[in-house]
Design goal:
The complex is a heterodimer of chains A (255) and B (203). Chain A has 255 residues and is an alpha+beta fold. Chain A is built from eight helices and seven strands. In chain A, the strands form two sheets. Chain A has a five-stranded mixed β-sheet with strand order 2-1-5-3-4. In chain A, strands 6-7 form a two-stranded antiparallel ribbon. Chain B has one domain: Fumarate reductase/succinate dehydrogenase, transmembrane subunit (3 helical TM bundles of succinate and fumarate reductases, Up-down Bundle), CATH 1.20.1300.10. The chains are: A alpha+beta (255), B mainly alpha (203). Bound molecules: protoporphyrin IX containing FE (HEM), iron/sulfur cluster and FE2/S2 (inorganic) cluster. FE2/S2 (inorganic) cluster binds next to loops of chain A.
Chain lengths: 255, 203
Amino acid sequence: MAENQKTVTFIITRQDSPDSAPYKETFHVPYRRNMNIISGLMEIQKNPVNAKGENVSPVQWEMNCLEEVCGACSMVINGTARQSCSTLVDELEQPIHLAPMDTFPVVRDLVIDRSRMFDALKRIKAWIPIDGTYDLGPGPRMPEKKRQWAYELSKCMTCGVCLESCPNVNDKSDFIGPALLSLPRLYNAHPTGAMNKSERLNALMEDGGITGCGNSQNCVQVCPKGIPLTTSIAAMNRATNIQAFKNFFGSDNAH
Amino acid sequence: MAEHREFVWRRLHSLLGVIPIGIFLVQHLVVNHFAVYGEESFNAAAGVLESLPFLLALEIFVIYLPILFHAILGVYIAFTARNNTVKYSFFRNWLFYLQRITGVFTLIFIAWHVWETRVQIGLGNEELSFGLMENILSNPIMLWFYIVGVLAAVFHFSNGLWGFMVHWGFAQSPKSQKIVTYVTLAVFLVVSFIGIRALLAFV
Ligand code: HEM
Ligand code: SF4
Ligand code: FES
């Protein structure tokens, strides 16, 4: 039984600490039908023995929703950045290579630190202010057609795959990345959010903002949620240009 | 409110790429094309340009300063990218990479070209004439350098026109961006034809 048990081979790029050098380690894991990458990693966690038969520390990774909505489990799988929860072993070539998305600082093994995205969310004011010291009442309504359109943009889960694929997101540049250029479009389209439109556009015009985009357009190809990132970016290009004219000529500064 | 320095500089970089640098490039290649109609034709066309009033001021403000600004910021932009066409070999990613390669190559080419033509003319070592280019291009290595240089500059301009349309928010939808891709491809083919034909007229 043990001899003819099918196995899956993982070659994992590991790193023991944020500053230590990465290395590769191979694991053989018993095969089950319909396995996803995470179930393979769970097998390694249960029995952390590498291909040479040595006992090693279990491989670390992050996960949360297990249904491709939180973005936490993103990693580079056979060269492509994607979510390990929704990537099925049966659809991949073996051996399966796993590596962290090293555009971000690596914390340990496959765990990366995406805080630069969360900091950038604050920078671009990626929220709609609805709180006041008194009840502000119901906001303006949104047409259903527009809501459906906006829903597509709202699917972003800050997974970081688009940043990983972008040649302009790297340690030499402070570019906040494609996702963060698309989100202001979503919030600016919301009838309540539109009240703070100019603040978001001005934030996008800061260093590392909209001008960081050089149109390689990788982001729109790799986004697991199919968000029209490049359309959003071009739309925000236009909006920031108009905002820049308003700022400079002083017309209509309140908006 | 912050002063948005990087934003203004990058928009200026984009604008200068088309106006005046892009317009100058097309104009320059079209005037060179007079060489196809013979030595007299070329010398007459070049003579008209040489006789423009305030020539040096025009050159400085319409050509040298804009190119210098675009090139310096351009080199910085080119070297802050971490190109990844091996991993993500999409069409636009290749054009993104080529935009940077051709920019840097064009800079080398322009520096060389200006040195052996405009600077030598300014120093009084040479005269603006058909013979000057005929002489330079009689060396096959130089001919190839010029052919590649013209193609690089024209590619950079044409693909840059596409980037310009996106950076200024004119072409937003995938469909409009695709149509602009075809239009800029046509620009590349037509302007390259003019440029190369002009070069070959000197050999
Ligand atoms: C014949 C001379 C040149 C012409 C006609 C030209 C034209 C252009 C145009 C039209 C753009 C598009 C602007 C945009 O993306 O919005 C551009 C972009 C660019 N140029 Fe040039 N350029 C020239 C020389 C150079 C040189 C010497 C460099 C130096 C390396 C350079 C580097 C760049 C870079 C890196 C970009 C991309 C900017 C971005 O994507 O944000 N260019 N150029
Ligand atoms: S835009 Fe797409 S790829 Fe980028 S972070 Fe959001 S979901 Fe991920
Ligand atoms: S675990 Fe949430 S996206 Fe994979």
